[in-house]
Amino acid sequence: MTGALTRTWVAVTAALSTLALTAPAAPAADPAPSPLAAGWTQETPRTLAPGVTRIRYTERVPDNRVRGRVLNIVEIDPAASALTLESIVGAGDGLTETVADQLAGVSSVAARRPYAGVNGGLFKSEPKHPDHVLPAGAEGTTLMHMGVSVTDGVLHSSSCWTNGDGSNGAVIQYGIPYITRLRTDLRLTAAGATVRIDDVNRDPGRSRGCARDAEDVAVAGQPGLYTDPDEIILFTDDYAYPVPKPGIDRNITADDDPGFEVVIDAHGVVTDARERRGGRTAAEQVHVPDGGRILQGVGTGAQWLRTHLTRDDRPAVGLELHDMTLDRDIPLDGSVDVVSSFHQLLRVGTVPAELPDSCSGRETGADGTTLICTDSRTALGTDIKGRPVLITLTGQPQTDPSVTHEDGDSLQAFARLLDSPELALVDVLNLDGGGSTTLMTGTEVQTPPTDAGKDPDGPEYVHRRVADSVYTGVGGYGMYAKQ
After folding, report:
1. By C-alpha distance, which of 101, 93, 140 is closest to 121?
2. Structural element, H or E, at residue 55
3. Region 443-472: what's the mean pLDDT?
4. What are phi and psi of 355, to 5 degrees?
5. Beta strands 231-236 and 199-200: pairing type?
6. By CB neighbour count within 10 A (0-12 exposed, 13-18 middle, 19+ buried), where does 99 fall?
7. β-pairing, 116-119 with 469-474?
8. Which residues are within 8 A (CB) of 321 and not within 5 positions of it... i.e. 6 or more apart?
9. Which of 154, 283, 300, 436 could be 230's S-S partner, Cβ–Cβ 3.0 to 4.6 Å?
């Protein structure tokens, strides 16, 4: 026993001697503060409704800016009350409206109006045909979505092609956004034959913003414009304008093709199959019948329609939405909305390596020399608890009305700011920015106008009319908290 105790004491003494002779480890350095913690101040959160909270951060270190920027975060907690998250195209697809107008149209009942909303997906403005008579209050342009757009299961636009990989988007279903890569597959079957439908609710022969299939060819000297002389385009009954006539775009030869047009009623029956798109005379205005559809074709697309469709036929239209991430189809039922984007800002809590450092608006900073990125930003995401989040980054209103209020940042800098751990964001999709960026809470606009006004007698800057909006409001998708 004595020997065992002696050996134990020797071992303990040796261990203590070793510890005494070893230099203590240097204390771990404090991690660098996040971009949010380093330069922004959080204001007192404001509850907009049970489960809907707006948190505003103001930049206290402007970093070569005249005034600090404003970051708005709207957190939506479906465990707190019955909340919904949806997108809306307003009074009709293709019609440009402000976010305020679109959200005002959600419900005429005050208690069911949205609690908060932001502008939605990417789009391009389209020229008006000189013979078209537009709806009351409409601007002289229509619009084309850039990527997949869906409201209540109705497809308004196909995906971008991107070598068959589709394009980014947020699938909003049952009050939750799911950010992924999406590809559409549109087919028309008649008389035992099947043909591809090229797109939805746009002028046949040309696409804006991105190619929609491998046949689309970029137009030299016209950035973002693509042409295809052989197309079939589908028009839905919520398209707010008369369907296109030939010759909208003088730069595109395919657009001059009179083409062929097929009218389908609410029962899926062809009521007319005729030469020339959009009416036989300049005065004629052709609208999609309620509950029905119209098909327009140019080139070989027009020839296919001539050959395979006539009155009283019942063609089958197949519209498929494919989730490229999970390799599955997403049924286009009434629960599905989709807003489009080119870029995902955060993916599983990390800034994607492929995210470009893009910026359209550059202005001289406070030092009078260095250029800074001034693109306002809008985003939609989910946090670590799976809750939806609406986001805007803008400047503060300027005292000089001749100076734009816009003051955001490049995509990468915006993503790094959102990657701050205090926000606990996991997946975030970039939405349309610049002059489109708008945040509304109730009936109040919380972001300054940054789009140059077109009315010489009106304000110098306005909130841009947009393609769609994303909003939260009272709904039936709440995951009620246990009492």
Report:
1. 93
2. strand 52-59
3. 90
4. -65, 120
5. parallel
6. buried
7. antiparallel
8. 148, 150, 155, 182, 183, 184, 329, 330, 331, 332, 336, 338
9. 300
* Structure-token pair, residue 466: 């947009």
Reported as a single tens digit per residue, the pLDDT across 349-367 is: 999 999 999 999 898 999 9
Strand partners, 392: 72, 378
CA angle in degrees (0–180, nearest 5) for 442-447-453: 110
Kindly state the average pLDDT of the residues 271-300: 97
The Cα 150–Cα 5 span in angstroms is 79
Q: How far apart are CA 307 and CA 189, in angstroms?
A: 12
Dihedral, CA of residue 309, residue 312, residue 316 and residue 319, to nearest 10? 90
Task: Please give the pLDDT value at position 24.
Answer: 61
**408 and 392 in contact (C-beta within 8 Å)?**
no
Report CA Rg, the chain.
27
Kindly give the residue spans of alpha helices, DSSP state H, lying in 149-290.
none
Whole-number Å distance between alpha carbons of 357 and 362: 13
**Are the beta carbons of 277 and 262 closer than 8 angstroms?**
no
Three-class secondary structure of residue 150 per DSSP: strand
Report the C-alpha gap between 30 and 35 in whole angstroms. Answer: 15
